[in-house]
Structures are given as C-alpha cells and as structure tokens.
Design goal:
There is one protein chain. With 280 residues, the protein is α+β, with helices and mostly antiparallel strands. It folds into two domains: 112 residues, D-amino Acid Aminotransferase, Chain A, domain 1, CATH 3.30.470.10; 158 residues, D-amino Acid Aminotransferase, Chain A, domain 2, CATH 3.20.10.10. 29% of the residues lie in helices and 30% in strands. Strands 7, 8, 9, 10, 11, 12, 13, 14, 15 and 16 form a ten-stranded mixed β-sheet that branches. Strands 2-1-6-5-3-4 form a six-stranded antiparallel β-sheet. The two termini are 23 Å apart.
Length: 280
C-alpha cells in the first residue's frame, strides 16, 4: 500500500522511516494488533482497538491518543490507500531511547497496510496440520511484537507442510503462534485453553457463535496427551477465520477430515463477518 502512518502523520511509504534507536527494534519492547480490511471496512475494529489498549496498559505504554483517535486514523488510512482488501497492522513501541534501553515515555505508533494473500481453499476443505513445541511467551495475555519462536519454526513448518506451531508448557497446550486452538471432545463439547494465551478476537466471536447455537463451550487446561481422544480440532485467527485441523505432529484428529461442528462454525463465522460488514 502506498501510504502508512507514523505518530499520527500519513506518509508515503518511502518516507515512513524511524530512527534506529526505537525500542521496538532494539529490545522488542512493543505491542501490536492486526485485523483484516474487507470491502474497505476494518473487521471487528472496536474489539481490536480495545485489545490494543489492554496490551499497552499491561506494558505501561501510555499514548496521547484515545480510542476514538486510533479509530479515526485507521479509517483515514484505509480511505487514503483506497483498497478493498488488506491486512492492517497497528504497532506501539516503547519509543526512542538514547541509551538503547531506557524509554523516554513517549511511545511510537505505526500504522501500516499490506496485501493479504488468501489461504488455499483446499486447507478448509481437507484440514491442516500443526506441529508442536514447548514454549511460553513472555507475557501471554499481550500481543507483543516478539515472534522469534514462530519465525524460527517457519522452515520446519514448510518442511512438514504444517500451517502453524502449537505451543505447550509443562504438559498443557496454550495457543498457536498466530492463532487460538479449539477441540471437540467425544461428548461434543467445544474445549479451548483457559489461560496462558492471547485471547483472540476471532476466538471471542467463535465462542459467542457456538454458545448462540446451543453448543457447550468449556475453557480449561488441556493436556497434550488428550489429543488422541479428541474428535475434531480447529484454530481461529483474523487471517484464517475458523480453520479445521486434522493432524497435530503424528496424531490424526478424529477421522482425519474436518468434522461437522467445525464446518458449521466455519460457515457461521463467515456469516458473522458478512453481517458485520453489511451493518457498516
């Protein structure tokens, strides 16, 4: 996209530059949020802004901007770039540091848009694979900019034809590197980890949809050795929506194909997004 925003100013991409002493670059001190733009409209924007401010509060990043200022800037940038479909990223870092470590109490805010290639439809028809690794992010409830483990595993994911990395810690699973994990057990309950992860916006809306449909959603500790007993699995994220998972490492989930509950939630989530767009 041709235009980006730095600290409230819309700039041409070639001019959207920051000094090298930004704490996000030097120390990984920063948070972000990410959402899709469809039909020229940011999807679930209020939810994403709320989560962004939660992340900032946890890391003591204080902005001069209020929530409505952030919304206004997002809408202005979408309009300025004149695109119908894109990914939108808001990044808030600790600001500049003369000594490379101590914040100056003036965070930097970057907003950028980029092309968002769609996933192969076959992934939704046949299901995807996850690989797992023991790992716990520093501040699990916050969407920090630190993605070392995820990027480190990119080569292995490609080699094993996996869509994501599933994190687990002390025997129980928490989240995937860029999505939340769900299962359907043999009693048709939907189960998802209760703690140790980022609470995704798509996760939030999927739970609401499931409960509205009369499904029983249980948030609890899920042990890694429970995988073999699960009937279905799926992940949720802003870019993936609801995506079926049919294999984790060497374990095949259920019958090895997307299950009925997953397919229903995929369909209903798509309707939810379409309704959201129609109302804006």
């Amino acid at each position: 996209m041709e235009y980006q925003i730095i600290n409230g100013k819309i700039l041409d991409r070639k001019d959207a530059l920051i000094p090298i002493n930004d704490l996000g670059m030097l120390r990984g001190y920063g948070v972000f949020d990410f959402f899709r733009v469809l039909e020229g409209k940011p999807v679930f924007l209020a939810d994403h802004i709320e989560r962004l401010f939660h992340s900032m509060d946890v890391l003591d990043l204080e902005l001069d901007f209020e929530r409505h200022h952030v919304k206004d800037m997002v809408l202005k940038l979408v309009e300025k770039n004149g695109v119908q479909e894109a990914g939108f990223r808001i990044v808030v870092t600790g600001g500049f540091a003369e000594d490379g470590y101590t914040p100056d109490n003036q965070p930097n805010v970057f907003m950028m848009m980029h092309h968002l290639p769609p996933y192969d439809p076959e992934v939704y028809e046949k299901g995807a694979k996850l690989i797992s690794t023991p790992y716990q992010r520093d501040v699990p409830s916050v969407k920090t900019i630190i993605y070392v483990q995820s990027i480190h595993f990119a080569k292995k994911m490609r080699a094993e034809n996996a869509i994501e990395v599933l994190y687990h810690w002390k025997g129980h699973m928490t989240e995937c590197s860029r999505s939340n994990i769900f299962f359907v057990d043999h009693n048709r309950n939907i189960v998802t980890p209760a703690f140790g992860m980022l609470k995704g916006i798509t996760r939030l809306n999927t739970i609401k949809i499931a409960e509205r449909l009369g499904m029983n959603v249980i948030m609890r500790k899920i042990e890694m050795d429970e995988i073999d007993g699960m009937e279905e699995a799926f992940i949720t994220s802003s870019t993936k929506g609801v995506m079926p998972i049919v294999q984790i490492d060497d374990a095949i989930i259920g019958n090895g194909v997307p299950g009925e509950t997953t397919e229903l939630l995929m369909e209903e989530f798509s309707k939810e997004v379409n309704t959201y767009l129609a109302e804006r």
